[in-house]
Sequence to fold (378 residues):
Amino acid sequence: MNADSQVVLPADPRAGYCAHEQEIRRAIDRVLAAGNYILGAEVAAFEEEFAAYLGAGHCVGVASGTDALRLALTASGVLPGDGVITVAHTAVATVAAIEAAGAAPILVDVDPATQTLEPDRLEDALAEFGETAIQVKAVLPVHLYGRPADLPAILDVTARRGLVVIEDCAQSHGARIAGGCTGTFGTASGFSFYPTKNLPALGDGGGVVTDNEALAERVRSLREYGWKQRYVSEISGTNSRLDEMQAAILRVRLKWLDGENERRREIAACYSDRLRNLPLVLPSIPDNGSHVYHQYVVQSERRDDLRAFLNARGIKTLIHYPVPVHLQPAYRGKVCVHRGGLGHTERLASRILSLPMHPFLTEIQVERVVEEIATFFT
Ligand SMILES: *Cc1c(COP(=O)(O)O)cnc(C)c1O
Fold:
């Protein structure tokens, strides 16, 4: 069977497993034989290797990306009732993590060019909420689609006020800005290792990254019932652990991360080259950093028609995300929204389309995607 004549998937975690099958099976066998299945040598080794890869002091493995953000907030001193500023143009998980920490999400619009937190609006939101009962304690920028947010400008705003910054790096493993990896600029950062992310496990997983040793220790304690010493809870904690099997798999995948990100960039370059004369808005590349294309997202006024056309031809696309957080049934009217409104976010939601993007797309599949899009517009 010729796979290229078949469906082109938006993401393909199985292809990633198959590409590294021998190595992954050896890693799993090692865990099975070692007999320690939770928080053992593999987790410790992965934490060290991932922190070293990023150029950060510490990584603490937890159960998911959502937990990584939640525990990073709590370990940074964000208390129930505190305000946390983030964007509505993100995975709901970003906002769910803020709520899980007991804090109040405050949603600010994105810069339409970068589709990430807009520093001037952040500044205005801080002024607006500075006059309310909500005490804004933290800012949570999201490196959406693998494109770094404008961290230098954001940190310029937050540093003047001594705010906590938690980076949402669930889509930006290995992306760089201003000379460093995303995840190494804030007070702490949260990574997800969900099977479709750039650094994928074969199940759930997450990591908190920080240079602050005391903060890392607090996350280590929080992830296991607030223990410092086994069976003695010093603080109120939870159960949020990365298991040995996932850590062993992640150690394999970490070795391939740069190469796979490079392949994503090649595919993105091909898309951008072949689509540039069509009536589409294409992703922009940061001039002081690198994009790791967790998603390659185009904008079109005819998004829904284009999507149906591609779908009928076996090219499966997704929308990240079709409903901004403040318009979701669970959050509508219940979250704080910056007085500037979320116009860019709402406009993007109606125009964005994520083309197939993963490192195992073939040349022929990429070619099919661009040809079908060109056909749609002729
Ligand atoms: C995937 C994702 C998360 C949550 O990660 P999980 O591991 O699924 O909990 C958070 N934020 C963003 C932007 C994500 O894409």
User: Anything to note?
Assistant: The first helix runs from residue 13 to 19. Residues 89 and 324 are 6 Å apart (CA to CA).
